[in-house]
Design brief:
The chain is mainly alpha-helical and 84 residues long. It contains five helices and no strands. Helix content is 65%, strand content 0%.
């Protein structure tokens, strides 16, 4: 799981503030994958960082694999964000 989260995080290296990148990286390497993914999603939203459809699909897959609720990512999805 660590490798999958770090691979996803790497996609945002140039778009995410360095301190947020480092925080999520630290969570991933300290086996806090769920916290890291939740924090990544929150930071993407708070910094209004665009998330490509393929990136969102990876986020959805990881949250499901970690047993996290869809609320972890739903606010990043333009379709669910405008639907309700």
């Amino acid at each position: 799981m660590e490798e999958r989260l770090l691979d996803l995080l790497e996609r945002f290296r140039e778009r995410l503030p360095s301190q947020d990148f480092a925080h999520v990286q630290e969570m991933a390497t300290h086996l806090e994958w769920g916290i890291g993914l939740e924090d990544l999603c929150t930071q993407l939203y708070e910094h209004s960082i665009p998330v490509e459809p393929s990136e969102l699909e990876t986020i959805k897959t990881l949250t499901s694999a970690m047993g996290l609720p869809p609320a972890t990512w739903r606010f990043l999805d333009p379709e669910t964000r405008t639907a309700g």
